[in-house]
């Protein structure tokens, strides 16, 4: 391929889309045309990308013509409908939604951890994991490579922006309603003050935490908890990995945090875990409690890596580590990982070996 | 004992003291004199208890004369100094601090779980567990009695009032500084806005979570994480119970939440766990995700029990349960449990069998 590949950003006007346009503008420019696509009601808006005001076009078959790589940053039902159309038109689709993550014919890729998976994509679609999985995988994948992962117990502290712009607006409104008051000390007083301003949540988030994210599934699990288990198994190639998770939303705008108890096949030490984490791509080790060095969402937001601290060997299990990590759910957790996948595809398309690559005209043959 | 026992509330002017005076005023009145004691700078203040304005006296040897039960709701260093003095003067001390929790000669009591431990108190002192342990024990103790506890992995979502009144004031100030802004989306923007208003915390709490509470101990553990392990082992009589914990402070005023992964010796079912939790004292089962019924701090604050929801059997371990629970850290977590212990002691003093009780004149003989 002599010309640079053409990129479509589908969902350019959303919260993740906004971060994606920043990333495309800031990273090394590997793209030819960059087409911004969104729902018809956003068509005609102009957004800045690579220093140029660019008009948003409505999602349609025509909008997907001549595209080499299509980044889908839209709800799962939109991806389910339109990603196969883009793939049929010859684009490699990088989808950030849940639509294809469980599809055995769609690789689920974190470039630092399983880049090899990218090359086998029979449907012409590559999926990016859920933001919560992505917060964890760079660190846990690196530790797995050394120690052999056996079991995970995960508790989340999830930011509201993972639930969309309405969720952020709801928390902002709630913060204004409770700030300057003495609320938060009597049963239901925050709920009464917040009234109908719940946004997409079942309970207030200001001065509260809510132990739910996702849809209700069998056994009382949430779809997101089950997703962490399925995605971690798929990415790490561990189909019978034991995973338990409890997902909790907290009043943070952006950046997910996770407390992780990870049991391995071999004995661990904090020193070796520190060495691994300090030298792994997409991970920053920040771990000195004496100096109050541990990651918090307010310090991590807007940065690319997963920040890891509170690394301890379990007191009663020499094969287990306890740790706490934070990652910006709109960057590595969504836009950045998808951008990295797209850039890897672009590099493959530009490579002299690309005649042998699986990108075009081979749907179903791999 | 014909007269009702005399009660001293030491630390009456603190946050837990305020809740204690409510409880003493609302519960069945088992007390004769109620003496309010605090630091010399609070002496002379008047506080309402049992409908009467009562003058606060300064902590001194004299203030502890003639007291049958002394409730200590003060920092550990104050308890360490004064509780033995009160005991030497004949009072049974109920201490809510960490000073004596690890002392083998001091029982650590949750009346619903290990009431028998109360009767053996060679030092004349009974300790109440830390608020985080107390949030968990009524539910986990009940499940242990049925299934036999083998291992706990706990993540906390701790309210700021557990760190005292300065902590609450700091979060209130921080909330006012960030409400109505667009903060929380750039690295350090919340930290800059909060400035010096951190209170006792190492990082902002508004629009943030902070993975630390307690002092730094060996291996990177916090004193509170180690305390959960030691206290749970002592209360349940399981000296080699495996416990891992990661403690995280969240922007909630009052009510601690915990995500708990509990492994048992025998196979569990959600149905049986529900039956146990629904019929256990000091526990409310609130668990129907379809109806958005799960406990949150804003709904639980101001109530006495531990509220439990999100009860699930681990998908990859038939002997493990995952659950989420909330309890008011100033009520069951501090004042209420201490009050319950004190009332049990009062009942013992009033009982016809009390000549055989170990309360008075027997220090060191048990």
Automatic annotation (TrEMBL), chains A, B:
Keywords: Oxidoreductase
Its EC number(s): 1.2.1.11
Taxonomy, superkingdom: Bacteria
Protein name, per record: Aspartate-semialdehyde dehydrogenase
Biological source species: Streptomyces achmelvichensis
Lineage: Bacteria, Bacillati, Actinomycetota, Actinomycetes, Kitasatosporales
């Amino acid at each position: 391929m002599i010309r640079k590949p053409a990129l479509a950003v589908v969902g350019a006007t959303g919260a993740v889309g906004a971060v994606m346009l920043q990333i495309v503008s800031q990273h090394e420019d590997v793209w030819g045309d960059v087409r911004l696509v969104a729902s018809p009601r956003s068509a005609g808006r102009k957004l800045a990308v690579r220093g140029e005001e660019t008009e948003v076009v409505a999602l349609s078959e025509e909008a997907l013509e001549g595209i080499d790589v299509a980044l889908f940053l839209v709800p799962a039902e939109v991806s389910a409908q339109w990603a196969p159309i883009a793939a049929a038109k010859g684009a490699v689709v990088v989808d950030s939604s849940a639509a294809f993550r469980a599809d055995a014919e769609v690789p689920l890729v974190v470039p630092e951890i399983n880049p090899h998976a990218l090359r086998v994509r029979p449907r012409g679609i590559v999926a990016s994991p859920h933001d919560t999985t992505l917060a964890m995988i760079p660190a846990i994948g690196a530790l797995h490579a050394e120690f052999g992962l056996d079991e995970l117990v995960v508790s989340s502290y999830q930011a509201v922006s993972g639930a969309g712009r309405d969720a952020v607006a709801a928390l902002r409104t709630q913060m204004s309603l409770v700030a300057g008051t003495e609320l938060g000390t009597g049963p239901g007083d925050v709920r009464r003050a917040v009234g109908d301003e719940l946004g997409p949540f079942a309970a207030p988030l200001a001065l509260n935490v809510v132990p739910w994210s996702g849809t209700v599934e069998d056994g009382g699990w949430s779809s997101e908890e089950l997703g962490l288990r399925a995605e971690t198994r798929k990415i790490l190639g561990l189909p019978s990995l034991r995973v338990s998770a409890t997902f909790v939303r907290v009043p943070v705008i952006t950046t997910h945090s996770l407390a992780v108890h990870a049991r391995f096949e071999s004995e661990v030490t904090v020193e070796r875990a520190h060495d691994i984490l300090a030298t792994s791509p997409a991970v920053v080790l920040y771990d000195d409690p004496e100096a109050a060095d541990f990651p918090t969402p307010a310090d991590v937001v807007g940065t690319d890596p997963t920040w890891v601290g509170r690394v301890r060997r379990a007191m009663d299990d020499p094969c287990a580590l306890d740790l706490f990590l934070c990652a910006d759910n709109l960057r590595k957790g969504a836009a950045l990982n998808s951008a990295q996948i797209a850039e890897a595809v672009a590099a493959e398309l530009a490579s002299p070996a690309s005649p042998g690559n699986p990108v075009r005209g081979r749907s179903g043959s791999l």
